[in-house]
From TrEMBL:
This is ribose-5-phosphate isomerase. PANTHER family: RIBOSE-5-PHOSPHATE ISOMERASE. Pathway: Carbohydrate degradation; pentose phosphate pathway; D-ribose 5-phosphate from D-ribulose 5-phosphate (non-oxidative stage): step 1/1. It is an enzyme of class 5 (isomerase). InterPro entries: NagB/RpiA_transferase-like, Ribose5P_isomerase_type_A. Its EC number is 5.3.1.6. It comes from Monodon monoceros. The lineage of its organism: Eukaryota, Metazoa, Chordata, Craniata, Vertebrata. Keywords: Isomerase. GO terms for molecular function: ribose-5-phosphate isomerase activity. One of its GO terms (biological process) is D-ribose metabolic process.
Amino acid sequence: MSKAEEAKKLAGRAAVENHVRNNQVLGIGNGSTVVHAVQQIAERVKQENLNPVCIPTSFQAQTDLTIDGADEVDVDLNLIKGSRGCLTQEKIVAGNASCFIERFKEPQGISSTRGTPIKVIPMAYVPVSRAVTQKFGGVIELRMAINKADPLFDGVHKWSEGNTAIKMIPGVVDTGLLISMAERVYFGKQDGSVNMREKPF
């Protein structure tokens, strides 16, 4: 297992150990690190006879706790998610959770480097691309999400102030920006340690 993958595993296990309780309704995300959290939940079910109800991001439901991974996170625990094309489903589950916990590997600090996914309806990708470029500049990259029907844009590097402006553009379904939604983020470090940061108030 690579050091990066080990960091994901450590963060996922810490989140499950600290927050999963018996009889909770758990939201389970689509990120690449989710497998480690699910494995830890399964171990605790066997060892402690827990009885959780797990809701994947493909279903909308009220949950007690959602555990997922993030693509990027800033100092205020705002998140960028959705690089795999599941950003709308992930936000629905996160928005219906009483407690939303993220896991993140932290190889070089926390910053925005890769842009923001924007989900659009297919017929709108040209005018949306034009509008986003005019408002924010940068380079827009069109890609089809794997196993998803709608195209995604990458290339927006502003966070909270950009989220509302982008969503007001006709044809935009949603953005990969999760503003003020995460209560805690666990950072798996390559040295084997795990840091936890709570949402600033």
